[in-house]
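ARCHIVE CARD
SHELF: 3
SLOT: left
DATA:
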Amino acid sequence: MGLYGVMRTSVSGMSAQTNKLSTVADNIANVNTVGYKRAETEFTSLVMPSTNGAYNSGSVASNARRFVTDPGSTTFTTSKTDLAVSGNGYFLVSDTAGNIMLTRAGSFVPDANGDLVNSAGYYLMAAPAGSPISARPAGTRTPAVGS
């Protein structure tokens, strides 16, 4: 094994450990972030073929795996508009341009119009109609689209 092989092995190991430290740092930084899902780093050993009796060192690859489908912990709140997903599923939310996104974070508050929005300003959507879910008092009329 030559100097190049030693350097390749060392650099791949350091790069893999850097990814692991980044994953741990993300988990620590987001420990109190609503809806954050943990991540883990997986390592894979790469074996190089030996040629002409010469030894070729291997290297290491890393892959960060995010657990976005794992259920998060549910916590009691005093807000009547906080929601939680039980089992598989996501909340459909949209920005002001109408782009639809998915989230499992269920902390919503009514805006000035009574529509439920999260801390990022995304509106909670109803799945079938695609219109915002409203926190208007019972018995009040929701204006028709286009009126």
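SLOT: right
DATA:
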Amino acid sequence: MIGRGYGLATYYCGDVAPDRKGVYGGIFPHYYKPGQTKPGPHEWGAIAAWAWGLSRAVDYLVTDEDIDRDRLVVVGWSRMGKAAIVAAAFDERIALAIPHQAGCGGTAPSRAAVGESVLQINRGNPHWFADAFKQFNEQPERLPFDQNCLVALVAPRPVLLTQRRLGHRGQPRGQFQVLRLADPVYRLFGAGGWMPRGCPRSIRWSAARSASTSAPARNSMGRRRTGPSS
């Protein structure tokens, strides 16, 4: 990777916000009001805190003379894929976002009837999002916006959504629809548009500023497994 001119920087997300239900250490207490013991119903959860941490890494990277500050890429898998797209949406110093298999609450539609639901993700990981998100557990169709709006916030900078074909949580077809619905914003900025007419079945690259790809691997970003995957 270094031979191709790339560098890699990372940090342990648990140092910024613990990935544990009901535990609000890390950065959270530094933003509390007097007497506050946890984030309010409309305040950030762990995903947004990890995105904040990514931006703090960018704070340093743009000062390093060995790094091209105009070509910073943020990438993450699953929960960190959600954090990656949030970081790119709020930090314009990030030139490219590659959230891998970010799923519900990331790059898959919350209003979809397939894949992991809002109810499932809030029950399994109630600390990831603002408590107000739980109001839509049973009726996600009432959400005032969906994840295409999050992707659109990155425009006109490019987004590449990567995905595995095995499993359902990442919702590859749902992610495809998210990109299609974000397409008008990219066109508004004169950044090109969404090129494929159908959901890609395998790795396919294009000149579009927003793109989607899927691969047959169980998890192409993560630890290599030698036995069956759960």
